[in-house]
Amino acid sequence: MSTPPIVKIVRRYQAAAEKVFDAWLDLGMLSRWMFGPDMRDEEIVRLTLDARPGGRFSFVVRRGDQEIDHVGQYLEIERPRRLKFTWGLAGMSVDESWVTIDIVADGGACELTLTHELDPAWSDYADRTKQGWTMMCGKLAEVLER
Amino acid sequence: MEALAAIADPTRRRIVEMLAERDRTAGEIVSEFRVSAPAISQHLKVLREAGWVTVRVDGQHRVQSLNPKAIAEVEGWLARTKQFWSNRLDALERALEADRGKHHKPKKSS
């Protein structure tokens, strides 16, 4: 591994940018792709969101006997180009992580880039030399091969 | 995930990088920073508690070294997160497809 903990995924959709953007903020739509039995073995308990910058969301699902509450706050909402929000699990001690959705329209289709980073501090780190991280991974390989 | 929270701090990340090069004593680490020894001790404590650093006694010295488990934890986070979103972005595609299908169907007359 030679990258800091940032996940980046690019997808092309045969749908208008607006439609893809709205799918992130529409509860009916979210229950069809983000959570629920169609996605995996889980039930939706309660989805709430306040689609404004500074507004919060809470997506509660039940898996087995466990309730999981995905919580966060919208930081940027620029339809249909950009959506940025914090993302975490309620009751976990870990700080929130940050998710950015960038959508570029291309005729009737669009390209979506999702970036999930652990902490804004990592952004600077990603732009800096990755040497330290690469070394750590080298060290890991070394230790594992012993 | 605690491992990750611990190295969001740039000083601690730098310490981790230094230990990735080679094991060091706390004194050697302090000499690289313009930060007081107690502050570095505190950072090392956080790194130990988060599983990044282990200490062994070598004669007069306490040697700090990097614990590869923490890196494995980071790799675990990356893999889980990538899987989580990949699954959902695929499901989003299916949901959009289903919607498109609907628009092409003739409307039912009730």
UniProtKB/TrEMBL annotation, chain A:
<feature type="domain" description="Activator of Hsp90 ATPase homologue 1/2-like C-terminal">
    <location>
        <begin position="15"/>
        <end position="145"/>
    </location>
</feature>
<dbReference type="InterPro" id="IPR013538">
    <property type="entry name" value="ASHA1/2-like_C"/>
</dbReference>
<comment type="similarity">
    <text>Belongs to the AHA1 family.</text>
</comment>
<dbReference type="Pfam" id="PF08327">
    <property type="entry name" value="AHSA1"/>
</dbReference>
<dbReference type="InterPro" id="IPR023393">
    <property type="entry name" value="START-like_dom_sf"/>
</dbReference>
<protein>
    <submittedName>
        <fullName>SRPBCC domain-containing protein</fullName>
    </submittedName>
</protein>
TrEMBL record, chain B:
<dbReference type="InterPro" id="IPR011991">
    <property type="entry name" value="ArsR-like_HTH"/>
</dbReference>
<dbReference type="InterPro" id="IPR051081">
    <property type="entry name" value="HTH_MetalResp_TranReg"/>
</dbReference>
<dbReference type="InterPro" id="IPR001845">
    <property type="entry name" value="HTH_ArsR_DNA-bd_dom"/>
</dbReference>
<dbReference type="GO" id="GO:0003677">
    <property type="term" value="F:DNA binding"/>
</dbReference>
<dbReference type="InterPro" id="IPR036388">
    <property type="entry name" value="WH-like_DNA-bd_sf"/>
</dbReference>
<keyword id="KW-0238">DNA-binding</keyword>
<keyword id="KW-0805">Transcription regulation</keyword>
<dbReference type="Pfam" id="PF01022">
    <property type="entry name" value="HTH_5"/>
</dbReference>
<keyword id="KW-0804">Transcription</keyword>
<dbReference type="GO" id="GO:0003700">
    <property type="term" value="F:DNA-binding transcription factor activity"/>
</dbReference>
<protein>
    <submittedName>
        <fullName>Winged helix-turn-helix transcriptional regulator</fullName>
    </submittedName>
</protein>
<dbReference type="InterPro" id="IPR036390">
    <property type="entry name" value="WH_DNA-bd_sf"/>
</dbReference>
<feature type="domain" description="HTH arsR-type">
    <location>
        <begin position="1"/>
        <end position="86"/>
    </location>
</feature>
